[in-house]
Amino acid sequence: MPGAAILPGWLRLEAGTGGQGAELVPVLAGLVLVLLGARLAGALFERLRMPAVIGELGAGVVLGNLGLLGWHGLEPLLATPGLEILAEIGVLFLLFEVGLESDLRAMVAVGGSSLLVATLGVVVPMGLGFLVSRGFFPTHAGVAHAFVGATLCATSVGITARVLSDLRRTASAEGRIILGAAVIDDVLGLLVLAVVTGVIAAANQGGTLALPSLLGIVVKAVLFLAAAIGLGRWLSRPVFRFAARQPNDGALLSLSLAFCFLMALLAQLAGLAPIVGAFAAGLVLDEAEIRSAGLERGRDDRGIAGRMKPLATFLVPVFFVLMGARVNLSSVAVPGMLAFAAALTLAAIAGKQVCSLGVMTRGVDRLAVGLGMIPRGEVGLIFAGIGSTLSIRGERVIEPAVYAAIVAMVTITTLVTPPLLAWRLGRTR
Amino acid sequence: MPGAAILPGWLRLEAGTGGQGAELVPVLAGLVLVLLGARLAGALFERLRMPAVIGELGAGVVLGNLGLLGWHGLEPLLATPGLEILAEIGVLFLLFEVGLESDLRAMVAVGGSSLLVATLGVVVPMGLGFLVSRGFFPTHAGVAHAFVGATLCATSVGITARVLSDLRRTASAEGRIILGAAVIDDVLGLLVLAVVTGVIAAANQGGTLALPSLLGIVVKAVLFLAAAIGLGRWLSRPVFRFAARQPNDGALLSLSLAFCFLMALLAQLAGLAPIVGAFAAGLVLDEAEIRSAGLERGRDDRGIAGRMKPLATFLVPVFFVLMGARVNLSSVAVPGMLAFAAALTLAAIAGKQVCSLGVMTRGVDRLAVGLGMIPRGEVGLIFAGIGSTLSIRGERVIEPAVYAAIVAMVTITTLVTPPLLAWRLGRTR
Fold this sequence. Notes:
The structure is a homodimer of 429-residue chains.
Chain A: H1 24-47, H2 52-64, H3 75-78, H4 81-101, H5 104-109, H6 111-136, H7 142-151, H8 157-166, H9 173-204, H10 211-244, H11 250-269, H12 274-284, H13 287-296, H14 303-325, H15 337-355, H16 366-372, H17 377-387, E1 391-392, E2 395-396, H18 400-428
Antiparallel strand pairs in A: 1-2
């Protein structure tokens, strides 16, 4: 009975009266907490004319760090696997929505800028991260520095996408460049991670990296994106036009969800993050066409995005509250690590400002693009987590103190972006 | 990597490139399968003018029994804990929706009938089940017969609620009596289970049942329902009127979901099934009032039910497909158990037909009420599952063969109800 321990005695479950809910209890308790916390904090920040997402992250930071005040009651609740699955589905819904709102042609129009921004945004932060790590830990292996650098690569598109959506600037040139670059970034970042991990595995066995297996990863990733955008668009068109014309109103939503999950699954299997697949799924679907097919049936048609909205209202805040809750405030306070964490954060921020020089489209605010690329969020945490499990000849690639600094860097880059981006986009509106 | 084993080699996940999705892969694959299977089978049955839920259950039975054809690839997918959590949330949404559509005053108007139907529906099937078990297994302990009887008590309101909803007959007198009786039934059934379990525990220790602990369970359950309906209605009114007037469109949905989950949690903690809490949450909320508060703000207001619909479209079919998938067709084919399973099924069906004699409201179709009370569904499976874990002095209370027969009874009562009820309600419309 995982939920029983966290509840006062008079609320404990009687053994044998409800086997069904055994795993459901902590999920339900977590959802009540997360939904109410997110809504209250979000409403507060909206009153202060700031994006609701900051409130949701803040609610998560508070809920996740009550242990510092001596109360650990909520920790098992927020770490429930069921709740994490819901959060991961929530971020898929967010990226699917962002993809639906994105116009593929408009994204291709800024594709050159996105590609250059993304490439600079991977190379420069990785180099800076490598140098910072070598400066602080001269005795560590070179590949460990490369790993720290790799954690600075990938932009967390979730945070920026949400801020752009809150400010209704997803379709702006800045928005399209940032989203396009973040997607390319994720691909490049995951390739860098695969390469570094491969090098470490080879070094650990005293050998060198097998080039064919590395090439296989790269080819799969490129093939996935080409297939998703080319083939996906061509195949999905007749299916979705058919679904929009079905008498049962639920057919279009079920099919859209299945398509979103399938693309996320395929992205994962191609070695990319599932959110890349969800974004591609939304990008491929042509809302205007589907809506007109629904209207042909004489239906008041809200399209896929309108049907997705309640699902996003339910699950997207779960993701942001849990992401805030992962922030361990005490990990930053390790003596001597504050300077390393600060240097790493500066490298992360400065590296992504350099990448805004890659913007070639006229009339685009470079600072807004640079700011939008700052957050490392979930991807940085995943990289750090993987690094902490790897070792070269018995020595950890990412030792606990370095891990704490990376978590601090992810925390700060994630938390500073929404206010900075909201401020900058508010000025240039 | 739980998902890797079930996938062909060329689709396997590269180690180290996507730690995030480790647990997400089987959930995504399961969701794609369940959503597409449910939608296709549901559409097929709708064309045949039968409730879509039969198609969804049928899709589950097919997906869950492909092992009989020698292909076990889908079994780990359908048993993924993440998918089960989604299914359990799905059935909460269904009961919450049914509660929203139910008018408390109209339910009280048939409350006498519901109470009598429920009481007869617990006492008669339990007695018949006891006799059938004693007839087939004269050497088993008396308390084991009582346990088999207890598995025949509780009506599975999910199936009937869905059929009534598909046929738009939730608000009919038959619909209200069935739903009211099923809720009371769940309460009585869970009390019976608690009593039988307590007796077994006491017998196992060579003692007798402690009356105070038993009374505690009963008091908690009764208190929960009284508090939910009385206090809940009074407390929720100002909160939801306030939420409906908020500028942010998502506030009402978030609050409704939090309320639904909170009530499900409290029901579970009070020793009742979570679905009873979700139903009570929907029953307590006054949609008409909330919608008028939304309209005061000049908003095109779909109310809570309208906002819940996409959520139900997403998750309710997951529940029914998984319930179908739990049916193990080969368990019925154990030699000699077919007769016991048939006798138990007949006792389950006959017992609930007797209970329709308790209908005192005029002009109500007794046969429709009796048919609506037939399915045992998830509650029967839970009871059987608990029984198979209990033992008296080393001997199992529910042995594997008896368990298989109970599963068969649950299967048949669940599968026969939708067509029978659809036929009867179609005739009396």
